[in-house]
Amino acid sequence: MASLLVVEDEPGIRTELIDLLTAHGHVVRSAADGFGALREVTRAQLDAVVLDLGLPDLDGADALRMIRGISQVPVLVATARDDDAEIIKLLDAGADDYLVKPFSGGQLVARLGAVLRRSAAPAAFPHTAAPVDGPPALITVGGLAINPRARVAHLDGTELHLTRREFDLLAYLARYTDQVVPKRQILLEVWREPYVDDQTIDVHLSALRRKLGERGARPRYLQTVRGVGIKLVTPR
């Protein structure tokens, strides 16, 4: 059972979402606008937020940034904006995952369950010789320095401002430096969901590449091996 906040301005849709999530055993609070959502986030102990972007008082992306200013509660964004640029902006603003409208109740429950599971524990690294007390304190790959314990990454001495999922993905790939990691393995070990589609990884990779200053034709760190997977390489 989780404590959830549903932010949706349409009364009928809001009621449907509350009924759906309550039927799955969750305790559900609701807000009809962005400022109402901020009030709930500040006063309630929440496990996750389902945030619609079409709010009457604030653009949902602005509401998301304001939520991130006061809380690290996982946020699942519901959006009609389906192009990569808009989705990358949402992930950069702090969204943990997204659903493109229209979506089914089953999709919402599955994505929300995945977000809740990911937030309950850090991503696992079961195929490496990590110390028993956790992942290594520091991984260096060329000019990249990644600290999985502190959840901080630097590139050439400058801190990278990564979302939670971007950091998880980068840290996981760093554990397999110069090895191709299949997308299916990434879905299982980072997303912890075998049924998340490849586009989810691609969107996060695109955002991560941009923050690493990668050029599409000649990537310095992140290489896609078509039909196989992703590789974080040591620059030559």
Structure in words:
By secondary structure, the chain is α/β, with parallel strands linked by helices. The protein folds into two domains: 3-120, Rossmann fold (3-Layer(aba) Sandwich); 139-232, Winged helix-like DNA-binding domain superfamily/Winged helix DNA-binding domain (Arc Repressor Mutant, subunit A). The chain has helices spanning 11-23, 34-43, 60-70, 84-93, 105-120, 164-174, 183-191, 198-211, and strands at 3-7, 27-31, 48-52, 75-79, 97-100, 139-141, 144-147, 152-155, 158-159, 180-182, 222-225, 229-232. The strands form three sheets. The protein has a five-stranded parallel β-sheet, sandwiched between helices. The protein has a four-stranded antiparallel β-sheet with strand order 6-7-8-9, covered by helices on one side. Strands 10-12-11 form a three-stranded antiparallel β-sheet. A hairpin with a 3-residue loop joins strand 11 and strand 12. Helix 4 (84-93) packs across helix 8 (198-211). The longest helix is centred in the middle third of the chain and has 16 residues, at 105-120. The chain is elongated and about 55 Å long. The N and C termini lie far apart (49 Å).
CATH class of the largest domain, anyone? Alpha Beta
CATH level 3 topology of the largest domain: Rossmann fold
How large is the count of helical segments? 8
Give the total of domains: 2
Distance between the ends: 49 Å
**How many strands in all?**
12
Form type: elongated
- Gyration radius over CA: 18 Å
Stretches with pLDDT under 50, minimum 5 residues: 121-133
Describe the main β-sheet briefly: 5 strands, parallel
Overall pLDDT level: 83
- Which structural category do the helix and sheet elements fall into? alpha/beta
